Automatic annotation (TrEMBL), chain A:
GO terms for biological process: transmembrane transport. The keyword RNA-binding does not apply. It is a multi-pass membrane protein. The keyword Transport applies. Keywords: Cell membrane, Membrane, Transmembrane, Transmembrane helix, Transport. InterPro entries: BPD_transp_1_N (IPR045621), MetI-like (IPR000515), MetI-like_sf (IPR035906). This is Peptide/nickel transport system permease protein. One of its GO terms (cellular component) is plasma membrane. Residues 97-297 form the ABC transmembrane type-1 domain. It is found in: Cell membrane. The chain crosses the membrane at residues 9-30, 101-125, 132-154, 174-190, 220-244, 277-300.
UniProtKB/TrEMBL annotation, chain B:
It is a multi-pass membrane protein. It comes from Salipiger thiooxidans. The keyword Transmembrane applies. This is Peptide/nickel transport system permease protein. It holds the Pfam family OppC_N. GO terms for cellular component: plasma membrane. InterPro entries: BP-dependent_transpt_permease, MetI-like, MetI-like_sf, OppC_N. Belongs to the binding-protein-dependent transport system permease family.
Length: 307, 287
């Protein structure tokens, strides 16, 4: 087990390192000179400024050196400063991290609370109308763009019914964005729960349990649901990563004061250091969550450790 | 051997159409594609012309989907938007598939150590959600149709490469590939002539999954102002420019959104249907 944990942590570290280096190199995707492009946004640009900033961001160095420089600084918690205002990127992002985490957790929770029962109902009624209805809802769910669902929720629940404020960042405001993320991703959870449960319900030990005269709800909830949940845990990481992707857009729709909203502002203003920092923070969160879930899975299922 | 294939072929098509999801998906997609092709001829108004009618009027006989904040005809704009959305989706999937399949194949035929390293890199990029990857790339390349398409294409590559690798690795272990290797066929030739035809069917399924995610990403990017720029009537950008008027004119929200949903739904239905047909597990379940 110890070896397994050590190996997973090492892989996670290497993955984060690769992402940080990639983020450092990404500035070279900018067509032309990135410094000129950035300064063009803020108006004034003379030769001195360009030379000073080029040196400050290390852009006069070879690419590999820049990437290592960026990675070295990033690992020490220094993600550079923003073009506008010259504030430290890491601080700006970390300030908003709690809001983003709160929304992600609320969204994931909603997705699980909606998705698991849906998948359960579908699997238990396999081939019947209920199964068909749930799967239809699920496929509709993955087909709806999150931002459109968000706008529709605002239209119905905020503007029409007046139940929730349109935008902002407070406990009351979290309901609609969390619901948006939850509904979209519950479809994924429902499909995964259903397929895991359908496989398990075909197992011999379920027939044995029924033959032993156990009550049906006991068979379903205890004997079938428990192992099914283990397979669901493994895909929660996937759902979470996907959810973080959708969250960037959702935060913008609801003006939720998180990292995603800051990132889009930075992208529109071409504040490249801030965008790089955003990539580093988001990728790190995804790697940390998937690693934690992998470790949990290893704990639940000893076979995984030996792989 | 030849007998079974000839027996099977004529049965394939009706089976595919009997699959309800493929039938419904194909029907919706057919309508959208037709609308995209015929848009310039069937659009009742010039989609760019302001004040084709009064501003922000609801659906009526003259303006089926109503008008937007500049008095442009929404029906004409949504029709023309089909061209942009499908065009971006198609281009992105084509480029993504080309590179993804090539990379996946090459990885599958690499020596063990190189393979492990390359897979690791693909996995790292793949763990990043595709919408985010596209967003990050566009942020650096700059907004616009071409850049958005390229970014979405690149964001699809890891997914296609990963799946192709999985499929090709299975094929590689089979005797017919080994036979070809013993016959000293060049790896590139084995990939193209032996392996590719055998995984083509599965590639069609993942192709359609990529399509739906490409269209969603394109709409999302345009909505955020990083993809198609106004006044071009991409569905996401129509939603972006109309979002401040949704309380007065909900139709600006409803119709472009429905267009996105139905198009994405059609690809998802077709993908699901083909999977049902080809996945032996679900075939067993149906019988």
């Amino acid at each position: 087990m110890l070896f397994y944990v050590a190996r997973r942590l090492l892989t996670a570290f290497i993955t984060i390192l690769v992402v940080v280096i990639l983020a450092g190199v990404l500035i070279h995707v900018v067509p032309g000179d990135p410094i000129t492009a950035m300064l063009a946004q803020s108006g004034s640009a003379d030769a001195d400024d360009i030379a000073r900033l080029t040196a400050q961001y290390g852009l006069d160095q070879p690419v590999w050196k820049q990437a290592l420089l960026y990675a070295g600084n990033a690992l020490q918690g220094d993600l550079g400063t923003t073009i506008r205002g010259g504030e430290p990127v890491a601080e700006l992002l970390l300030d908003r991290l709690p809001n983003t985490i709160a929304l992600a957790v609320a969204g994931l929770g909603t997705a699980l609370v909606l998705g698991i029962p849906m998948g359960f109902i579908a699997a238990v009624n396999r081939g019947r109308a209920a199964d068909f209805a749930v799967m239809l809802i699920a496929i509709l769910g993955v087909s709806i763009p999150g931002f459109w669902m968000g706008l529709t929720f605002i239209q119905v629940f905020s503007l029409h019914l007046g139940w929730f404020p349109v935008a902002g960042t407070s406990a009351r405001n979290i309901v609609l964005p969390a619901l948006t993320l939850g509904v979209v991703h519950s479809a994924l959870v429902a499909r995964m729960t259903r397929s895991a449960l359908v496989d398990i319900l075909n197992e011999d030990y379920i027939r044995t349990a029924r033959a032993r005269g156990l009550r049906e709800h006991q068979v379903l909830l205890v004997h079938a649901m428990r192992p099914a949940m283990i397979s669901v845990v493994t895909v929660v990481g996937l759902v979470f990563a996907h959810l973080l992707g959708g969250q960037v857009i959702t935060e913008n729709v609801f003006s939720w004061n998180g990292i995603g909203r800051l990132a889009i502002q930075a992208m529109l203003q071409r504040d490249y250091p801030l965008v790089q920092g955003f990539i580093v923070i988001f990728a790190t969160s995804i790697v940390l969550v998937t690693t934690a879930l992998d470790l949990l899975y290893g704990l639940l299922d000893p076979r995984v450790r030996r792989r | 051997m030849t007998d079974t294939t000839t027996n099977h072929r004529p049965r394939r098509l009706p089976a595919a159409l009997r699959q309800w999801n493929i039938a419904v998906g194909a029907l919706i997609l057919g309508i959208v594609v037709l609308a995209a092709i015929l848009a310039p001829w069937i659009a009742p108004y010039d989609p760019f012309k302001m004040a084709s009618g009064p501003r922000l009027t609801g659906p009526s006989a003259a303006h089926w989907f109503g008008t937007d904040e500049l008095g442009r005809d929404l029906f004409s704009r949504v029709l023309l938007g089909a061209r942009l959305s499908l065009g971006i989706g198609f281009a992105a999937v084509a480029v993504g598939l080309l590179f993804g399949v090539t990379f996946g194949m090459i990885i599958a035929f690499c020596p063990e150590r190189v393979k492990a390293l390359l897979l690791r890199i693909v996995d790292v990029v793949y763990s990043f959600p595709d919408t985010l990857l596209a967003l990050a790339l566009v942020a650096f390349m700059g907004p616009g149709v071409e850049n958005a398409t390229i970014a979405i294409a690149i964001s699809l590559i890891p997914f296609y490469a990963r799946v192709t690798y999985g499929l090709a690795a299975v094929e590689r272990a089979k005797p017919y590939v080994e036979a070809a290797q013993i016959a000293q066929a060049a790896p590139a030739r084995i990939m193209r002539i032996q392996v590719l035809p055998n995984i083509l069917q599965s590639l069609i399924v993942i192709g359609s999954i990529g399509f739906s995610s490409a269209i969603l990403s394109a709409a999302g990017l345009s909505f955020l102002g990083l993809g198609v720029q106004p006044p071009s009537p991409e569905w996401g950008s129509i939603l972006a420019s109309g979002r401040n008027y949704i309380s007065r004119a909900p139709w600006i929200l409803i119709f472009p959104g429905l267009a996105i949903c139905l198009t994405v739904l059609s690809f998802n239905l077709i993908g699901d249907g083909i999977r049902d047909l080809t996945d032996p597990k679900s075939r067993r379940r149906r019988s």
